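User: I've been trying to design a sequence by hand for this structure and keep getting stuck. Would you show me what you'd pick, starting by listing the structure so we're on the same page?

Assistant: Good idea, let's start from the same input. This is the structure you sent:
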């Protein structure tokens, strides 16, 4: 088994024509091709700690939710986040009682 160079998942599998596929992030690559070193964008929490997919975070301030009468309270723990580099709301997650949400990383701390 190969480790995914994108998310470091150990579950990558061979998908034919000497290509490998990661079931977690859907990244495909040829292990025989030279991998270019990229600095890659990083998403940081409010304290400057780097966030990764699957991390748990804690909301640091009450966040109003459009269409909901109550906000997400400060101190709410959110497990198993997914990072989204294509949006200013760069954390995708599920929050109990609210469902799927997109949150800005400046309103969370790693926990």
């Amino acid at each position: 088994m190969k480790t995914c160079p994108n998310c470091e998942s150990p579950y990558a599998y061979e998908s034919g024509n000497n290509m490998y596929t990661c079931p977690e992030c859907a990244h495909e690559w040829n292990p025989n091709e030279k991998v270019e070193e990229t600095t890659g964008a990083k998403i940081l929490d409010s304290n400057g700690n780097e966030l990764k997919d699957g991390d748990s975070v804690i909301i640091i301030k009450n966040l109003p939710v459009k269409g909901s009468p109550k906000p997400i309270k400060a101190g709410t723990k959110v497990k198993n986040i997914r990072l989204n580099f294509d949006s200013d709301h760069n954390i995708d997650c599920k929050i109990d009682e609210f469902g799927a949400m997109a949150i800005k990383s400046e309103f969370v701390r790693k926990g």
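That's my pick for every position. To get oriented when you compare it with your attempt: The chain has no helices and nine strands. Residues 1-35 form a domain with the N-terminal domain of TfIIb fold (CATH 2.20.25.10).
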